[in-house]
Each structure stands twice: as structure tokens, then as C-alpha cells.
Design goal:
The protein is α/β, with parallel strands linked by helices and about 250 residues long. It is about 35% helix and about 30% strand. Strands 2-1-3-6-7 form a five-stranded parallel β-sheet, sandwiched between helices. Strands 12-11-10-14-13 form a five-stranded antiparallel β-sheet. The radius of gyration is 21 Å and the shape is elongated.
Length: about 250
């Protein structure tokens, strides 16, 4: 059984999560409920849960304030929030999942299944570190992103990424120091996350950081990046690229 604590400042939400878990899973045991940062901290230190369902906004602070109280996180977390605008981008960059209220059974069960999959504490703590860093540094150009390979988990400054290149079901990430990281995430995932922070999908297989663009060779139909790499530009993306360049 997975020992859990439900942390939410509204009793009806606590009961809803508890009832959904009882109805749709047989692997989660609810040890306690808490309605504030302080009571949650006490419950966690007393019960040592495997998993917490964590609301973001509480009367005496936020769920992030609670997490900062622990030097090392050794429990898994499912964030639950009604505030769609609250730190959603930070969740994307850190690769941590969250649930939006009102909860649906299917979304809750999907989140629980992800928790049941193996995740070591080092990976979780790195993801949480990036999440808290991105929340404390809301400026878009200071964000970090999690890049995970079979052997390692990287914390990378977005500004240090020159471009992404699709390679089958994998994506190559090219960094300013010349390093390359091969990750098992699709180009579309990165496109969705980085669209609003200066990246452009110039080709089906290529996503570039406009901050590292050196020139656009219009006749040849490609861009040259500051690391001298040459990236093709599809015909349907040329106008969008030119429009962005004219805005700089």
C-alpha cells in the first residue's frame, strides 16, 4: 500500500479526493488530512507518507512554502490546484505533474499510476529544485528545464540551449558549450513548452532558440546558428521567421 496524506484547505476537497481514491484505487491508504502549511508539515513529519496530494494555495502560505521546509523530499507529490494561472509554466519546465480542480476520476487515477511507477528520490528532488527555482525566478529568460536520459537527469538553463533536432522518437538537444543530450521526449513536447520563450519550430525536425540565431540565408532556405550549425527552414515557416526577425 502507498501511504498518503491529503493537504487542502477545503474539507469538501479533502473528502472528494479521499472518496475518489476509495472508489477507484486499492493501492492508496490515506493516513491523514491537513488544511494548512503548518498542519501539513506536522502530519508529514509524524506519518512519513509515500505520497502527498498537495493544494497550492492555503491560508498560511503555499504548497511550495511547505516543500521548502524539507531539506530533502523523500515522498512523492501530486499537486492539486484550482488556480490554473498559478505556476503552471513552472510545472511544465520541471516535468512534474499537476491536477486542476474540479478533479475528474480519470485524471486522478492517471496521476496515481504515474506515482506507482518507479522514481528515485534524486530525480524527484532535482525536479522539485527546478520547480521552486522557476517559481522564485519568474523571468522567462532565467528558467531551467529538466532533460532526462537513460543514464542522467540534467538541469539546463533555457538560454544555454541552441536548438533541438528530432531523431525518430528521440530529440537531440544542442548546448552552447558544444555538448549534446539525447532525450526520449518528442519535439512537440518541447515546442509546446518553449513556444513563448523565444524558440521557433522552423522545420518539422528542428526547433531553434532565436537568441542564438546568427543569420537567415533566404536563398538557400536555411538558418545559421551561432555555433555554425545549419538548420533547414520549411517553406511554410519562412514568413513566420521573417516576421519575428523584423520584430527584433
Amino acid at each position: 500500500m502507498i501511504k498518503s496524506i491529503i493537504i487542502d484547505d477545503e474539507k469538501n476537497n479533502q473528502e472528494l479526493i479521499s472518496n475518489l481514491l476509495k472508489s477507484y484505487t486499492d493501492t492508496i491508504e490515506v493516513l491523514a488530512m491537513a488544511n494548512s502549511v503548518e498542519t501539513a508539515y506536522q502530519a508529514i513529519t509524524e506519518h512519513h507518507p509515500d505520497l502527498i496530494f498537495l493544494d497550492i494555495q492555503m491560508p498560511d502560505g503555499t504548497g511550495f512554502d511547505l516543500l521548502k521546509k524539507f531539506d530533502k523530499i523523500n515522498f512523492r507529490i501530486i499537486f492539486v490546484t484550482a488556480h490554473q494561472e498559478f505556476a503552471i509554466e513552472a510545472f511544465k519546465y520541471s516535468a512534474l505533474d499537476y491536477l486542476l480542480k474540479p478533479l475528474s476520476p480519470s485524471n486522478l487515477i492517471a496521476a496515481v499510476k504515474k506515482v506507482e511507477e518507479s522514481m528515485n528520490s534524486e530525480e524527484l528532488n532535482l525536479k522539485l529544485k527546478i520547480l521552486l527555482s522557476n517559481i522564485s525566478e519568474p523571468s522567462k529568460n532565467k528558467k531551467k528545464i529538466v532533460l532526462k536520459t537513460m543514464e542522467r537527469i540534467y538541469s539546463v538553463d533555457i538560454n544555454d540551449i541552441i536548438r533541438f533536432e528530432s531523431d525518430g522518437g528521440y530529440t537531440k538537444v544542442y548546448l552552447v558549450d558544444g555538448k549534446r543530450i539525447m532525450v526520449s521526449r518528442t519535439m512537440k513536447e518541447f515546442d509546446d513548452i518553449l513556444l513563448d520563450v523565444g524558440f521557433l519550430r522552423v522545420h518539422h525536425s528542428h526547433l531553434i532558440n532565436m537568441n542564438h540565431l546568427f543569420c537567415f540565408e533566404k536563398a538557400e532556405g536555411h538558418v545559421v546558428m551561432k555555433d555554425d550549425s545549419v538548420v533547414p527552414v520549411s517553406n511554410r515557416k519562412k514568413d513566420q521567421l521573417l516576421e519575428l526577425l523584423n520584430m527584433l
